Design the sequence.
């Protein structure tokens, strides 16, 4: 079975929003072993939309559309998609009732155009939307299955998980299963150079590299009759990769670096506190993005000024004047200070120049000191990054988490 | 002039990465008045890629590709695109030199496959990449302009700004200019209902709504011979919208809510500190995302446990026991406490249940109290959100910033 995704909305073509729907649909289909050969974004223009839909229907067995189900004037797309398959829109009274209930529950006024969302193609199966007002639907036409989903990312994601995935299970025969080997501390081309033969010779399982911001992910994918069989095929390949990359691999689960740290802290029954200057709460934010982080994360201090560093973190008066705010010594004092004051097992301290401007000293923009303290020891890494503020801050967080997971797994903190 | 964007990479079709390149290219083109009628994502499959490129070349005057320039084995796409226009790849010695310099500067080992990136279509103009190793290029073929850009988002974005935009200026005749009216506190369909006539009758300028997470943006776009003329056409429409939506409009610049707060704080010469429980540093992170935030942002405390709230924020002992951690009283005490301890003009305090799990009390998941204190007064909003942890945390931040900008502009903090 092969699928195409069509994302509808002029705002996509104007670059006003990022197309996370396409990614979410693609991921869902990929996990079910359904191949996606292309996806297309098209505006709220009936003629061009019809053209895209008709061309995709000639190539694919399954068509998933996102967007164009909303109540605004520029969302005329539902009609166009239905018409491309010779279908009319008809009123679905049960959807009307759901829409009314949704607004009552949120105590929000409902406007008449909200009820337009209850108009769906004749003969379709309604996909109930418990996360917004526009229901989705599935219908069969001319040998193609068409699934229409709402555009707002949160709704689209929930519909995929609770409506589309259950529906598609059973339609797909073979299991395609992947393992993700996550690597921090080496660039994509160097990883590929080390694993060149393995990757070039791979067929089933295949090995493919993906560069993510600041890290590399290797995806090992096997096609088999069951997940267990796929896992058996994947393991020897993973073992070969481990031999080459060893301590650079931080997990083989589908987990982020911070999730890996959370898991390790839980297992070790340890806690963490953060003291952030240039990262400004980003590391605490990443840790608290994770459900269950309250079990290991005590809290943190965002110390954006010298008095806050001294007063809340106990950085000794004079140290900043002597060594500079951006220094090994201050990073270490911040890590130790927050650990001691908040009573956690580990403390992270970060100070640096995220840019775009420097601090008037001769320290280069992009220089960040990341410190980790466990009371007995304090380690500091000096990192020099190129690129934008967001990237400098993000990568600094990566280093903090990498140092933590190394200490928690008994690896040396030195990374190069 | 009309353009199509082709994003190349199997990782897009597997849903491993979000296609921010398409958004960035679309935004750049839109700002230059170049229409984008569709964009397509396709994998590293020569046959399907050739098909997509040829079809797009028949429809568009300008083709921009992203991705497929990298050094890994699965990036064979450059050849395919060149071949679709009857071009061979040839070695560009000046690119080779740039690639060598790049690795030397970062003190990273260069591998032979990195040099493959110096192979570009014959007769092309090279677009130098100062942010990575793969150069881009422009060439003309069969009446179509083709621009090839690297896939990594950071590189693509920089190339658009510093290479593509300057090149495209001059190719486009008419100026298309937009103003963005940002609204917080009302849903998209309600906004559209209030402005129905204005939007339906609009032609030049046009008015179109965009729902963003937790807010609505109205884009007023005029086509004219100059930006000044476009602005003159836009202003009366903006004035009409102001009459209807008044205090819900937080800015008419292309600024976020937090950037608006930063600007207002600077103008008023005031400072801010944050005390966050459930948002876990997210509000501080959003404030410090902004260059120049150190002029107004003092710092913050992420108080994820009761002792941290009492010790670092001075929340009175017994208050939490009496009122519960998630309460109006604790939010207010956090805002007041952080303001007093960090010596800022304003303090923000946030406590709530971000989910997915509750806290064992009868308080519902998604309930958040957001407090703002200026010493003389403390205001608290109770917000009940549906949806995921990320959304609950994000919207709580929106409310904190909305309260702050209302106080700073002399508006009532009450929002409904």
Sequence:
């Amino acid at each position: 079975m092969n699928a195409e995704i069509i994302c509808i909305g002029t705002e996509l073509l104007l670059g006003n929003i990022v197309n996370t729907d396409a990614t979410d649909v693609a991921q869902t289909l990929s996990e079910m072993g359904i191949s996606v050969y292309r996806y297309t974004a098209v505006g709220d223009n009936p003629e061009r939309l019809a053209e895209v839909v008709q061309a995709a229907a000639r190539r694919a067995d399954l068509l998933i559309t996102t967007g164009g189900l909303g109540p605004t004037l520029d969302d005329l797309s539902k009609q166009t998609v239905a018409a491309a398959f010779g279908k009319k829109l008809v009123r679905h009274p049960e959807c009307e009732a759901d829409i009314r209930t949704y607004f009552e529950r949120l105590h929000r006024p409902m406007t008449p155009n909200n009820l337009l969302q209850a108009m769906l193609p004749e003969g379709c199966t309604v996909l109930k939307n418990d996360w917004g007002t526009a229901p989705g639907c599935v219908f069969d036409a001319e040998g193609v299955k068409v699934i229409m989903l709402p555009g707002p990312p949160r709704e689209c994601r929930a519909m995929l998980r609770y409506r589309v995935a259950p529906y598609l299970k059973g339609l797909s025969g073979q299991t395609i299963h992947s393992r993700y080997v996550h690597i921090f501390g080496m660039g994509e081309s160097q990883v590929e150079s080390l694993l060149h033969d393995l990757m070039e010779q791979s067929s089933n399982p295949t090995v493919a590299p993906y560069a993510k911001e600041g890290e590399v992910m290797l995806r090992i994918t096997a096609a088999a009759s069951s997940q267990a069989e796929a896992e058996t095929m994947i393991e020897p390949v993973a073992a070969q990769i481990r031999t080459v990359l060893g301590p650079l691999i931080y997990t083989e689960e589908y987990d982020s670096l911070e999730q890996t740290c959370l898991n390790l802290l839980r297992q070790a029954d340890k806690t963490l506190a953060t003291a952030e200057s240039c990262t400004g709460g980003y590391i605490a934010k990443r840790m608290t993005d994770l459900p269950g982080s309250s079990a290991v994360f005590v809290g943190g201090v965002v110390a954006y000024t010298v008095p806050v560093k001294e007063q809340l973190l106990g950085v000794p008066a004079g140290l900043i004047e002597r060594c500079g705010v951006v220094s090994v010594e201050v990073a270490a004092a911040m890590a130790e200070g927050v650990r001691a004051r908040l009573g956690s097992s580990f403390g992270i301290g970060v100070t640096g120049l995220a840019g775009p401007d420097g601090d008037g000293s001769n320290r280069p923009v992009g220089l960040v000191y990341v410190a980790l303290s466990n009371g007995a020891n304090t380690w500091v890494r000096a990192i020099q990054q190129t690129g934008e503020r967001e990237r400098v801050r993000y990568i600094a967080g990566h280093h903090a988490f990498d140092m933590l997971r190394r200490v928690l797994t008994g690896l040396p903190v030195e990374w190069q």
